[in-house]
Design goal:
Length: 942
Amino acid sequence: MFQFKPNLLTLALLSAGVCINVYAADNEAAKAEATATTQDESIEVIEVRGFRTSVIKSLNNKRFADTVSETISADDLGALPDQSIADALTRLPGVTAVRTGGQASGLNIRGLDGDFVSATLNGREQVTTGGKRAIEFDQYPSELINQAQVYKSPKASLIEGGVAGTVELKTADPLQAPKEHNFTVNARGSFNDRAGEIADAEEYGNRLSFSYQGKFLDETLGVAVGYAHLYQPYVASQFIGLRFNDERRDVNGDGNLESISEGFEMQQKGGTDTRDGYMGAIHWQPNDNWSFKGDIFHSKFDSENFARGFRVKSLKNGQISDAIVEDGSMIGGTVSTDGTDNFAVFVVNDNDSKYSELTSGAVNIEWTNGDNLTIAADISYSSADGEFVNGGTRAVIYDDMANNVRSAESITYKLNNLNPADISFAKDYTDTSTLGLREVGMWPYDQQNDLIAYKLDLNYQLDNSFVSSIDVGVRYSEREFNAQRSQAGYGFEFGTNPDNQPVLALTDDMTRVVNFGGELSGYPSFLAIDFDKAVDLVNAQLAATGQDPFVPTANWANNWTMIQSGTVNEDVLAGYVQANLDFEIGSIPVTGNIGLRVVNTDQSSTGLQQVGFGLGEEIIDEKGVVSTDYIHNKVGKSYTDYLPSVNLNFHLTQNDQIRFAAASVMARPPIDKLKSGMGSWYDDSATPGYKKYNAWGNTSPLLDPFYADQYDLSYEHYFEESEGAIVFAVFYKDIKSFINNFTIQPFDFEEAGFIVPDTIVDNGVEFPVVKNEGQYQTAVNNDNGGYIRGIELAYTQVFDFLPGALSGLGFTGSYAYSDSEVEFETDLSGESLAIPLPGLSEHVLNTTLFYTLDGFDTRLSMRYRSEYVSEQVAVESQLAFFDAETILDYQASYAMDNGLKFLFQVNNLTDEANKTYFGQTHQTGTIQSFGRQYFLGFSYTM
């Protein structure tokens, strides 16, 4: 579908271009003289040295950039001290992260979450190991990244996709290395001070990296290689409160109805994260006309994690007494059962391991005529695989396991706001004679992303007093996303187990008693169950009754696995033209660019659509189970977008400049939201004797991207007598729509490209099917957009004007305020509640105080973000309010003259926990503690 919707921003940019050209023509003579004068004047580039090298180099990159951007630069490959590039990026103004397992992973930029952030590696689009487009930045070791730049305003030559911003990661160019041969090695040991509280968790880890850059053949050939290894404990001690039900009960007999929590979890999480990253690059420049580059990056991240403890579910179904109520919510009381309802206390042992691999590679050829023309051709490939194991066991107390008779049980609890709840149980959950294994399951979710792209760029230098050069380019990419959801299950979490899958008696050799530690040390003990031995127990039972063995493969009785599987294809053809500006207004030099990017997207998805009544294809799964209720369908759309942009930098003085930027931007939907798979049902049509077709799935290959118009204005002052700067910026984004799950009725399935049978036979009666009357539970673009606006203030200074040893003191910090009118509705607090845009913290503060003296470097960094809304850790993803958090990190090092440096580092110095709540703080969500990480090691550079 062809779309061209010129708006006020497009017209304004086009008008600005016309006006500037007229101005340039009228003032050509004056400009020629002024330009010559400007070229004779040199702007002093800040010299960098010591610990402050990366800080000042980053400031220089920002100063001379042609867009509104922020940069992190390493003094050399391997010099960044952070565990991943995500940690480093969170020090930039307006950039925050959501901690996963205690580590920064996904990024938010200016109040927008990772779905609105695009990422490139050496200028090439990156795919992700998950089902969304949000890049998992902890996949990228900081030791292998030489520079990271956050573009807050786009330009036409940048790949589209970043409404919040674009993160560009760069690995080293060996021909740019400072010496002919450069070698760096890093080795560190680590310790987590909470690992002792978690049974089977490891306390110690390590990091090892090395890199080499060399120049050969009279410095015409450069080679770079790097390797980074991370092995660290994964530790989390957590209490998780679940959402509050909107089905209310009068729990204390006062005639008022109260909302009740679905339950809560008390768990120990542990395991290890192992990451191996590899980088290689070669650059051959045989003469001034030709350049040949090749680079490859590979990262393998294995997160082997377990979660063990209690899960209390369906409090509303139990018998409630002594209820404690606050503001319409039950926050405590005694809940009991006689064993016949769905209220239960489960002993859970989950395997939450995830295995990820990411590979990116590219070849680039560049030719210049030695004068004014440069042509570059680029072929790149990005591939990512993610495997989520997602398996576990559920055990419940029984009076009679053989006859499926559950025991009566009760709990007494009280939620304590943003602290773990007080909980006591009436039963012992460590006795194998009464604790029965009722469910063993695996629900693996595997995803693969592949992208290949071809790009051709041309730069033509002009002898012009207004436009210094023209960039023109074209890019074509093909992306394929594959998802496979499977299920293998024995027994059921609720209800009564089937006769051929009875509750299984645990044995002492497959269990052991585990005690809680730390803040959860008052909770009852539970049994850790060996999953492999539980599977052996299940298979022995299945074999005894002639059933197939337990294997993690598709089960056709659960069509949610069918609709979560499928393929998405996305073909993109983009072209751009960009004029790079260099002119004067009066005596003020102006640089920047103005351009237009045109993008055609062709998206489609192939999945399984349920039609029912045996009217589908004959599909056979890996176990030989045959289904005829599904068909393969392919649905999609194409559209064209026009994305104008302008970046202007007014150089008021040698040390002062004002930037203005405006652009239309877009971000495509999360890739897994484009799947076409869906389940279905039929019910009576408005016409007697007819049935109407209905479908559900909450994904759609017919989704449009997110669109926004954005504006940036900033003032930058660079200090003349010392190293540093102060920056003030304001921004405004007008977002046109968001994606929500929605029910459309009536919906014309046939017109949208879905295949629907003409007739069905139900209980021997044939019914014609109405195809345009039923409801479609899907994902849609709503038109309830809104603004995001904010201010950013950044200050960096090296106090080298102070006397003596104090001259090594320095500070860099930033404050960002963001505000939005965008609101969403949620009922997770037990009633309809307006929540702000997920990922948006109104206040974000980053500071680093550093000191350098005769080889000794030390720094203390602080990251603060006010409360925000995001997905909390739970049985299923649930939106919750995250409490404000302050993270402190400390580092000290001493460098010797021979290239040897010793390092000590502490991450999460105050052991700040993740804390969430639903609506109000007494509706407790997650309290999750990760511990402090200590590092001690050395690096050697030669």
